[in-house]
Amino acid sequence: KKVANQMLVIFGASGDLTARKLVPALYNLYKGEHLPENFVVLGTSRSDMTDEEFRKKVVAESSFLQSQLKEQSEDFVKKFTEKLFYQDLGKRYTDSYDKLANRIAYLNEEFGTEENYIFYLSTPPSLYETIAKNLCEEGLTKEDRGWKRIIVEKPFGYDLASAKALNEGLHHYFEESQVYRIDHYLGKETVQNLLVTRFSNSIFEPLWNRNYIHHVEITNAETVGVEKRGGYYDKSGALRDMFQSHLLQIVSLLVMEPPINSNAEEIRDEKVKALKSLRIMKDEDDILENTLRGQYVESTVSGKKVKGYRQEDGVDPDSTTETYAAVRFFVDNWRWKGVPFYVRTAKRMPTKVTEAVIHFKTPHHQVFSSQDVYRQDNKLIIRIQPDEGILIKFGVKVPGLGFHVEQANMDFYYSDLDSAQVMDAYERLLLDAMQGDSTLYARADEVEAAWEFVDPILKCWKESDKVTTYGYAAGTWGPKNSDELIEEKFGWRNPGD
Ligand code: BG6
């Protein structure tokens, strides 16, 4: 698909996302010849910088761009960075938009970007509405000449009420079709492949329901702690940071009904229906029984001392914010009635992995003896990252006398495909927005449906004195009682153990 000439305006451009993710993604698009002929990036933030200082800063802060200076030659990288410009927004995000508008008009004229603008908001959400309003007042949202789009980063809201308010605020100035809510998990190949696995194979979909699936398990584990984001994270916690967005996106793709085609609206309609069918927990007892929160404590990991969460910079020393969250829930619809879903996410785990496991039921009648019937159930393991791929576990006869059954693996690795290299999530998502394809962006009703499910849990965790934040040693699989949440005979699948 041809990409129209356009300008990308990044708000919060002096922040870490621009140098770490956005500019490297744009560089790769440039290298892959995906950018249109006329294309410029205008960074803006409160910092005072010249164009040249901005270019130097993003290169200096990106180890990837640094490596490209050697791999591709300085000239090549320079040609790319010449597409980057910078305009400061004064001391606040509330004024100086006239200067910004003038600069946009000037660059548009100079570089022929045809008044096609994407505004990328990499700022705290509290600024989204202010920025949108100011853009509107400067006449920068009107689509009479060229299209206008706005991309907003997560977190999209702090709870249901604030997400609704944010949507309402943005909708004053932009149509929903102009709003692109980013969830970088949707940019991951393996997450998109959930749709293909389910809807392009006749061997999975007929089994994809309560008749054959015993339970579904999703694990998202990171080895890192909160790094330099203690201040943000302490107000957020794992449930907001990962579960409400990335993990519920994965859930919606696993749960949804087949869309009638692959258009953005059709797919997103089905995802919304899926999210709306999650059974909302109704009271404190329900939440105490079905959720678990934990927080990592100081420990020694691979011979190195690792700080506890409460000792991290920017974190309240008495914080009860969770770095581990596990939730068991049910999906109240025809397909999924009665099938438990177990989803957990945490920092400071033994390994970095994200996977979804579909546990199939054991056959109704056991013909062969087996030591441990429940360990022998068929599993479809979708490895989202790393080692992207799909693993099927199935029973085979142990060679020799009798009919003893053992599990064997059928394993597919993405890395075995020799087709084109996998695009980074931000690359894919930016290119989609540049082409006006919002399939991999979250729609307003989708985000709200996800908050609707999460809201009562957050509320209870905050208000109830019966909720405990359990400690777990950094580098372990979570609180000691985490297996109590999942049916005993299975326990969690800890990849790599
Ligand atoms: C971000 C969260 O959205 O996703 C981070 O804010 C988390 O806390 C990150 O580390 C994980 O992303 P990935 O792609 O490394 O799994």
Automatic annotation (TrEMBL):
Catalyzes the oxidation of glucose 6-phosphate to 6-phosphogluconolactone. This is Glucose-6-phosphate 1-dehydrogenase. It holds the Pfam family G6PD_C. The gene is zwf. It comes from Algoriphagus sediminis. Belongs to the glucose-6-phosphate dehydrogenase family. Keywords: Carbohydrate metabolism, Glucose metabolism, NADP, Oxidoreductase. Transmembrane segments: none annotated. Pathway: Carbohydrate degradation; pentose phosphate pathway; D-ribulose 5-phosphate from D-glucose 6-phosphate (oxidative stage): step 1/3. NADP(+) binds at residues 46, 154.
